[in-house]
Amino acid sequence: AKASGRNNYQFFTQTMNQAASQHFELESSLRGAMARKEFELFYQPIIDTGTRRIHTLEVLLRWRRGGTELVQPDQFIPIMEENGLIVPVGEWVMRRACEQSVEWLRQGFDPVPLAVNLSPRQFMNRGLIQSIRSILDETGIDPALIEFEITETALMQHGEQTLEILGQINRMGIRLSIDDFGTGYSSLAYLKRFPVKKVKIDRAFVKDLEGSAEDRAIVAAIIALSNSLQLSVVAEGVESEGQYKLLRENGCQYAQGFLFSQPVAAHEVMALVR
Ligand code: C2E
Ligand code: CA
Ligand code: CA
Ligand code: CA
C-alpha cells in the first residue's frame, strides 16, 4: 500500500509538472502568435426569431497555432486575460472586425452588425476609449454596425467607473449588450442603470430548457423583465427546434446557436447571409 501511495504521489507530481510545462509552452507560443499572424476571426449568426433571418454576427477569436491546429478560445483566452495579452489582441480583434465589415460593404453585401466581445481586462484598460476612436477613424466604419458584448461579472466589478466608460462608448454610437447573463449575481433592475440595449442569456439556462421546468421559469422571467425594461433578449446556445420554439413562445427576440449555424470563417459568412 505504501509503495502504491508513493507511485500515486509520483504520478501526481509528474502530471502536475506536465500541466505546468504545457501551460508554459502555450503561454510562450501565444506571445508570438500575433506577430506570426496566427489569429483569425470566426463569425456566428444571431437570428431574429420573428423572421429566422440573420440580425447580427458575433465575432469569435480563433488561434491557428503553428499555422495549422485550430485552438478554441477557452484554451487560450483565460491565459491572455491573466497575462494581459488580451489587451493588444482584443484591440486587434476590434480592428480586424471593423475592416472586415467595411470590406463586405464594399463588396456589395447588405450591412450586418458585428458583435465584438470585450474582456474585463480590456474594459478596465485606460487606453480603451482612445483605441476605439482610432479604429473608428481609421476604418471609417459606421459605429451603428458595431456592438460590444461585456459580461455581467465585468460590469459588476468596477462601480462608478463602469458607468463612465459605458457612457463614453455609448456616445460614440456603439451599442452595448450584457453577455452571459444569469451567471453572476446582479439583477436586471440594477443593470438597467447602464446604457445597455440587449441581454444575452447564458447557454447554461438554455441547455435543459425542454427538460427542466425550473430553467423554463428562469428564462421566462428574464425575458419578461427584460422586455418590461425595454431590453431585448438573445438566447445563447440554441441547439434544438424545441428550445427555439419555447424561446419564441416566451417573447425572446433573438437566438444564437448550432441550430442555425456554427461559428464560420469570414469567407463562409456571406453564403449564410444571402
Ligand atoms: P461567449 O461570448 O459566451 O461566446 C459564445 C460561445 O458559445 C462560443 O464559443 C460559441 O462557439 C459557443 N456556442 C454558440 N452556439 C452554441 C451552441 O449551440 N452550443 C454550444 N455548445 N456552444 C455554442 P467560443 O467561440 O469557443 O468562445 C468561447 C468564449 O471565449 C466566448 O464565450 C467568449 O467569452 C470568449 N471569446 C471568444 N472570442 C473572444 C474575443 O475576441 N475576445 C474576448 N475577450 N473573448 C472572446
Ligand atoms: Ca459573447
Ligand atoms: Ca455569451
Ligand atoms: Ca456563455
Word description of this protein:
With about 270 residues, this protein is an alpha/beta fold. It has 12 helices and 10 strands. It has helices at about 1-30, 75-85, 85-105, 120-125, 130-140, 150-155, 160-170, 190, 205, 215-230, 240-250, 265-274; strands spanning about 40-50, 55-65, 70, 115-120, 145-150, 175-180, 200, 230-235, 255, 265. β1 (about 40-50) and β2 form a beta hairpin. α3 (about 85-105) packs parallel to α5.
Key attributes of the depicted protein:
274 residues; eight-stranded mixed beta barrel; 12 helices; 10 strands; 49% helix; binds calcium ion
Report the structural category: alpha/beta
| Averaged pLDDT | 92
Helix content: 40-55%
Number of strand segments: 10
Residue windows where pLDDT falls under 50 for at least 5 positions = none
Rg for CA atoms: 21 Å
The major sheet is characterized as: 8 strands, mixed, barrel
Beta-strand proportion: 15-25%
Widest sheet: strand order? 1-2-4-5-6-7-8-9
SSE string, helices as H and strands as E: HEEEHHEHHEHHEHEHHEHEEH
Q: What global shape is seen?
A: globular
Domain EAL: 23-274
Protein name: EAL domain-containing protein
GO molecular function: catalytic activity
Short description:
By secondary structure, the protein is an alpha/beta fold. It has helices at 2-31, 77-83, 86-106, 120-123, 128-139, 152-157, 159-171, 188-191, 203-206, 213-228, 241-249, 266-273, and strands spanning 39-48, 53-65, 69-71, 114-118, 146-151, 175-181, 198-201, 232-235, 254-255, 264-265.
